Amino acid sequence: MPVNLVALGAIAAGSVFTYAGIKGLSIPDAVQGIVQGRSPATLPQEYAIDPPVSTPPATGSQAVAGGSATGQAIANDALKYNGTGYHWGGPADKPGNWDCSSFVSYVLGHDLGQPLPGGSWGDPGMPPHTHGPTTTSYRGFGRAISRGEVAAGDLIVWPDHIGIAINNSTMINARSSTTGTGLSSIDGTTRYFHGTEPVYRRVGV
Description:
Number of helices: 6
CATH class of the largest domain: Alpha Beta
Helix content: 25-40%
Radius of gyration: 17 Å
Largest sheet: 6 strands, antiparallel
Number of domains: 2
CATH architecture of the largest domain: Alpha-Beta Complex
Structural class: alpha+beta
Order of helices and strands: HHHHHEEEEEHE
CATH superfamily of the largest domain: endopeptidase domain like (from Nostoc punctiforme)
Distance between the termini: 51 Å
CATH topology of the largest domain: endopeptidase fold (from Nostoc punctiforme)
Strand order of the largest sheet: 1-6-2-3-4-5
Number of strands: 6
Strand content: 5-15%
């Protein structure tokens, strides 16, 4: 049977884009890494994540705040995993075996039974079978909101990173194999991701 080179090329291109998007690499750097035979799992995150911020107190301006009841539930659930691990490309089959986007999928799909971009938790191609939706998928998921509207449970999505807001200034995110899953400043993280502003998405009702 002849090999369909066009189909193989499309699969290869899709793999490169996924690899680059999850790892925070430019497409040329991703291609170079693959050509050189470097495993994505052994590479550091291209863009450092800002140091952890303190766990917000139960009350006051830094508490889990704003948004809807669903948003509060998303934020509170995500906070359970503060201090857990990070694994690049992890399928989120257990806590800590996730990267930034599969962590979000675990909170939304596994814990709260919400839909995910392109399907639901446990579907073929979805966690915990495979990594599932990447940041690219989440950039168009839910409803767009402005920076000023960000509240508990909203998604903060860069081209190569994603976090879950717990209030208007702080998010919880799976950051790197060094720093694991924890709290970061929403605005402080921006400077590490190509200098681009994230998009803000509301998935809670």
